């Protein structure tokens, strides 16, 4: 649906996001305290803003790596097929891993990625997601840390896109079609 007109209604302000990111980072820092082996793995592209803010609040030595997974299908719904488009640059065997994702929706993407990374035998693997739409879940997967639970709305901003647009909004808003 390339050109349907829409507006964006703010759902979570930049201030609320920043307060939540700070709280999450304290919990994550406490959880991994003492590690010198933490790799923060961002799932491209939607997590790039979240991961940038999160790692700057972590009081831990961290490395950052990225993985790109893609599901087929139209722009507003996930398909069940997940492909790895770009793999990690580094090894994670024996390391502490924090997977950072923008949204968990049906759960197919995250469960695929977690299964793949666990097969590489990290020492510990935890997951931090910014947004969770629990009403849409089809695969039983739960993040260790969740920023916000949201209703079944299509959202954009703070790294999250609609057909590659609106990633640069500082807040999270829901897409409302006006036609
Ligand atoms: P899942 O495999 O259905 O859990 O899909 C998760 C992925 O779908 C996320 O990483 C997002 O890229 C995308 N996604 C899910 N909901 C939204 C949304 O409301 N806006 C933009 N992308 C979304
Ligand atoms: Mg994504």
Automatic annotation (TrEMBL):
Any GO CC annotation of this UniProt entry: cytosol
Keyword Nucleotide-binding: yes
Pfam families found in the cross-reference section: Pribosyltran (PF00156)
InterPro entries per the UniProt record, alphabetical: HGPRT, Hxn_phspho_trans, PRTase-like, PRTase_dom
GO molecular function terms listed in the Swiss-Prot or TrEMBL record: guanine phosphoribosyltransferase activity; hypoxanthine phosphoribosyltransferase activity; magnesium ion binding; nucleotide binding
Pathway: Purine metabolism; IMP biosynthesis via salvage pathway; IMP from hypoxanthine: step 1/1
Keywords noted in UniProt: Cytoplasm, Glycosyltransferase, Magnesium, Metal-binding, Nucleotide-binding, Purine salvage, Transferase
Primary location class: cytoplasm
Cofactor: Mg(2+)
A Gene Ontology BP annotation from the UniProt entry: hypoxanthine metabolic process
Cellular compartments annotated: Cytoplasm
Domain Phosphoribosyltransferase: 14-162
Principal EC category: transferase
EC number(s) from the headed UniProt entry: 2.4.2.8
Reaction(s) the record says it catalyses: GMP + diphosphate = guanine + 5-phospho-alpha-D-ribose 1-diphosphate; IMP + diphosphate = hypoxanthine + 5-phospho-alpha-D-ribose 1-diphosphate
Membership in a protein family: Belongs to the purine/pyrimidine phosphoribosyltransferase family.
Protein name from the UniProt record: Hypoxanthine phosphoribosyltransferase
Species whose genome carries this gene: Rhodobacter ferrooxidans
């Amino acid at each position: 649906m390339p050109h349907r007109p829409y507006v964006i209604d703010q759902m979570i302000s930049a201030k609320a996001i920043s307060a939540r990111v700070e709280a999450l980072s304290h919990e994550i820092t406490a959880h991994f305290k003492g590690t010198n082996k933490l790799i923060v793995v961002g799932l491209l592209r939607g997590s790039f803003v979240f991961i940038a803010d999160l790692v700057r609040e972590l009081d831990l030595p961290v490395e950052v790596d990225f993985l790109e997974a893609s599901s087929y299908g139209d722009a507003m719904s996930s398909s069940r097929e997940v492909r790895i488009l770009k793999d990690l640059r580094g090894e994670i065997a024996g390391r502490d891993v924090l997977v950072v994702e923008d949204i968990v929706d049906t759960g197919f993407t995250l469960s695929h990625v977690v299964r793949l990374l666990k097969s590489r035998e990290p020492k510990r693997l935890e997951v931090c997601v910014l947004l969770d739409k629990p009403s849409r879940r089809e695969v039983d997967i739960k993040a260790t840390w969740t920023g916000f639970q949201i209703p079944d709305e299509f959202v954009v901003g703070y790294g999250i896109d609609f057909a590659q647009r609106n990633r640069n909004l500082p807040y999270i808003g829901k897409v409302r079609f006006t036609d």
